[in-house]
């Protein structure tokens, strides 16, 4: 992929970080964002307040969806409940070979997107801690690596897919973003999903950072219980998950991003609907379907839904 035109669809915390890194490396990037962000980015540039640098990065920004007709690569960064409607909005402008990279949490966004369009769609497993601190102002709290891959098992060895994935990976790597092509991206997605089920809801309910969360012993016990339930469901889904690896990915979060409040917590703070139906809510539904009890996930799900109900 030589000199691709990159569009960030939904330039918030994640879109501004990864799109911003590509723009900073000199790529042609356009952020599709809400008016307050567009105005600030056009005026001053995107302020990337990162752990390793603080810089105003020059990048294009617009509210207009028709710029999608130029895109070779779309970083799809809207929240999970917005996936379907956003795809319907951009569908009229999509080039047939434009690659859509979903940087969203959850395990079913690519499947839902792919039901609406024929374009190549790939998941990115995203380990980063970011938030929008104000219009055009990105605050980075830790990490920033990606794993991408082909998720449709029947097309796993397709050479065109592997070529596309390698070129996307090179693009990010050259811009300073570690990006591996995963041999089993479904497994990687479930490990990340495990992290989200363990941390996002508690952080949202308590409006609390991960480092402070795990200072409380009973919260650590709850995280363990949430994790056990998710691992049981994952195994039932045919995902190979070891207890040792699950514990490792869970333990890394407060160590590598202690000052972060989850994206679900950020939604609650902004009085927006959350992604909880696609996180702990999915575990609750699958638990009922498979007859696997998931009371801890049920409790987190119910509490976030209650807060959302009176908050939005
Ligand atoms: N924040 C984080 O650290 C991480 C987040 N993630 C995942 O990444 C995904 C994105 O999360 P995040 O970046 O935090 O979310 P944000 O809410 O910060 O960003 C999404 C942005 O897209 C905007 N948007 C939605 N539709 C449109 C549209 N039609 N036109 C213009 N702008 C639009 C939203 O505006 P509005 O709010 O007004 O709808 C919002 O500003 C989620 O799936 C999340 O779980 C993954 C890893 C880490
Ligand atoms: C990586 C993590 C846990 C960062 O907060 C996240 O994915 C989220 O907030 O949704």
Written account of the structure:
This protein has 312 residues and is α/β, with parallel strands linked by helices. The protein has 2 domains: 5-181, 3-Layer(aba) Sandwich (Rossmann fold), CATH 3.40.50; 185-311, N-(1-d-carboxylethyl)-l-norvaline Dehydrogenase, domain 2 (Orthogonal Bundle), CATH 1.10.1040. 47% of the residues lie in helices and 19% in strands. It has 12 helices and 10 strands. It has helices spanning 13-24, 35-44, 83-90, 109-114, 159-174, 185-206, 210-213, 217-236, 243-256, 263-269, 280-290, 295-311, and strands at residues 5-9, 28-32, 46-49, 54-57, 60-62, 73-76, 99-102, 121-134, 137-148, 179-181. Strands 1, 2, 3, 4, 5, 6, 7, 8, 9 and 10 form a 10-stranded mixed sheet that branches. Helix 3 (83-90) links the parallel strand 6 and strand 7 (99-102). The structure holds NADPH dihydro-nicotinamide-adenine-dinucleotide phosphate and ketopantoate. NADPH dihydro-nicotinamide-adenine-dinucleotide phosphate is lined by residues 10, 12-15, 32-34, 77-80, 82, 86, 89, 103-105, 126, 128-130, 132, 263, 272, 275. Catalyzes the NADPH-dependent reduction of ketopantoate into pantoic acid. This is 2-dehydropantoate 2-reductase. Belongs to the ketopantoate reductase family. It catalyses: (R)-pantoate + NADP(+) = 2-dehydropantoate + NADPH + H(+).
Topology diagram in text:
Layout: E1 5-9, H1 13-24, E2 28-32, H2 35-44, E3 46-49, E4 54-57, E5 60-62, E6 73-76, H3 83-90, E7 99-102, H4 109-114, E8 121-134, E9 137-148, H5 159-174, E10 179-181, H6 185-206, H7 210-213, H8 217-236, H9 243-256, H10 263-269, H11 280-290, H12 295-311
Parallel strand pairs: 1-2, 1-6, 2-5, 3-9, 6-7, 7-8, 9-10
Antiparallel strand pairs: 3-4, 8-9
The structure holds NADPH dihydro-nicotinamide-adenine-dinucleotide phosphate (NDP) and ketopantoate.
The site of NADPH dihydro-nicotinamide-adenine-dinucleotide phosphate (NDP) has 26 residues, from helix 1, helix 3 and strand 8.
């Amino acid at each position: 992929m030589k000199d691709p035109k990159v569009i960030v669809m939904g330039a918030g915390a994640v879109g501004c970080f990864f799109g911003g890194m590509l723009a900073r490396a000199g790529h042609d990037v356009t952020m599709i964002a809400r008016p307050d962000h567009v105005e600030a980015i056009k005026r001053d540039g995107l302020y990337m307040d990162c752990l390793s640098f603080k810089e105003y990065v020059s990048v294009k920004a617009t509210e207009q969806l028709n710029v999608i007709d130029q895109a070779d690569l779309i970083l799809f960064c809207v929240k999970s409940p917005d996936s379907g409607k956003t795809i319907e909005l951009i569908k009229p402008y999509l080039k047939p070979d434009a690659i859509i990279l979903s940087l969203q949490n959850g395990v079913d966004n690519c499947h839902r997107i792919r039901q609406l369009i024929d374009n190549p769609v790939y998941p990115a497993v995203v380990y980063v801690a970011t938030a929008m601190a104000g219009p055009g102002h990105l605050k980075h709290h830790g990490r920033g690596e990606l794993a991408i891959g082909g998720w449709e098992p029947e097309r796993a060895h397709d050479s065109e897919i592997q070529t596309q994935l390698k070129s996307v990976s090179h693009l990010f790597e050259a811009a300073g973003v570690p990006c591996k092509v995963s041999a089993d991206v479904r497994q990687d997605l479930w490990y990340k999903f495990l992290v989200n089920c363990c941390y996002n809801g508690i952080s949202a309910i308590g409006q609390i950072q991960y480092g402070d969360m795990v200072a409380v012993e009973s919260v650590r016990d709850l995280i363990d219980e949430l994790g056990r339930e998710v691992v049981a469901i994952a195994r039932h889904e045919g995902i190979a998950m070891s207890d040792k690896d699950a514990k490792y990915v869970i333990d890394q979060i407060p160590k590598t991003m202690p000052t972060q409040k989850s994206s679900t917590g950020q939604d609650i703070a902004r009085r927006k609907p959350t992604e909880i139906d696609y996180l702990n809510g999915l575990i609750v539904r699958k638990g009922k379907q498979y007859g696997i009890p998931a009371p801890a996930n049920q409790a987190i799900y119910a509490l976030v839904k209650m807060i959302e109900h009176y908050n939005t």
